[in-house]
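Shall we go through a protein fold together, starting from nothing but its sequence? Please make up or recall a protein chain and show it to me in full. Go ahead whenever you are ready, and we will take it from there.
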Amino acid sequence: MAEDVFKALADPTRRKILDELAERNGQTLFEICSRLVARHGLGSSRQAISQHLAVLEAAGLVTTRRQGRYKFHDFDRRPLERIADRWLRHEPPETP
């Protein structure tokens, strides 16, 4: 799973999407696209952003929920916390 997280974070557009969701969870695809254009000058198509969101969701970094005809996206920090726990909060293994 950590490999998926690293691959998802490798793309600058996906990092910007996570920045926007970190600032305000619960955004629709339209809202995310609008914020990316207004704040970052990214003119990616809705389909391209949707594909980026699918990669982030597959890596466990984004969760979605449907409400009526709208799909809301939320940033899930748990995969990043697991990575941080692995290298930052535990004692390193002893070497022989």
Observations:
- The radius of gyration is 15 Å.
- The longest strand covers residues 62-67.
